[in-house]
Design goal:
By secondary structure, this protein is mainly α. The protein has a single domain (about 5-130), classed as Nucleotidyltransferases  domain 2 (Four Helix Bundle (Hemerythrin (Met), subunit A)), CATH 1.20.120. Helix content is about 80%, strand content about 0%. It has five helices and no strands. It has helices at about 5-30, 35-55, 60-75, 80-100, 105-130. Helix 2 packs across helix 3 (about 60-75). The protein starts with a helix and ends with a helix.
Length: about 130
């Protein structure tokens, strides 16, 4: 992939990550906890997708993105295991909230993730900038 185009994709995905995080905050204010969890996951997903793109690692499936992230960044300690666990938990929460009946997240479930997701996005952004 052409270098200039790749950088545009990386930049776009980071912007989407931050925009989606803002959507999560809106859902928090409205107490829409399942949707807030969904937007927090997607915020991380876009950041991880940007990081993978930067390193020419691509998957067309969410599970593939998660696997590549864990293999190339968490297991190699480029990203700390705690952040990897956050991404994995949000992946599961999004799956459960979107596809399983009678799953209801509350403030006590989702609120702790909000600050952690901002830290996650900032970590990924810095990693992209530094490389």
């Amino acid at each position: 992939m052409k270098s200039e185009y790749k950088l545009e994709i990386v930049k776009y995905r980071l912007e989407r990550s931050k925009e989606t995080y803002e959507e999560a905050l809106l859902m928090q204010r409205e107490k829409h906890w399942n949707t807030c969890a969904n937007r927090l996951y997607y915020s991380c997903f876009y950041a991880v997708s940007a990081l993978l793109q930067k390193h020419d690692l691509v998957s067309s499936k969410h599970s593939g993105v998660k696997a590549l992230f864990n293999q190339h960044f968490v297991k190699t300690n480029v990203i700390c295991k705690k952040k990897g666990q956050l991404y994995n938990r949000l992946f599961d929460a999004r799956q459960e909230g979107d596809y399983i009946d009678f799953v209801y997240y509350g403030s006590e479930d989702v609120t702790p993730w909000i600050k952690d997701v901002m830290t996650f996005i900032n970590t990924i952004s810095k990693l992209i900038e530094d490389n």
